[in-house]
Inverse folding.
């Protein structure tokens, strides 16, 4: 049995069934709880909340993610950015992040 929560799971690899209905259900739960970031393995899924979520992009939030491993805190774009930065420094090679989405979806 997979881990279940009223607010969904942080990483969808923890779902007991990786299928469209369970993925959509998990994303709906997280969206309703203003948790707009969700992992599926190494991939970060970001949903546009179409509203301001306070403390999501503050200096304090940025500092909380600095130097932390991806799974120490809730999924966030800051976790991915910090992970890529640390890998770039430790491995000495360039890193690549692919950002994909529909026009007007908030990728900027």
């Amino acid at each position: 049995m997979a881990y279940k929560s009223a607010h969904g799971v942080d990483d969808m690899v923890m779902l007991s069934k990786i299928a469209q209905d369970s993925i959509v259900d998990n994303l709906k739960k997280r969206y309703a709880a203003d948790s707009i970031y969700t992992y599926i393995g190494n991939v970060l899924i970001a949903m546009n909340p179409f509203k301001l979520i306070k403390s999501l992009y503050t200096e304090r939030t940025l500092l909380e993610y600095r130097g932390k491993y991806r799974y120490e805190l809730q999924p966030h774009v800051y976790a991915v950015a910090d992970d890529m930065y640390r890998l770039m420094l430790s491995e000495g090679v360039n890193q690549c992040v692919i950002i994909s989405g529909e026009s007007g979806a908030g990728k900027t």
Remarks:
- Residues 77-91 form the longest helix (15 residues).
- The beta strands are 37-40, 43-46.
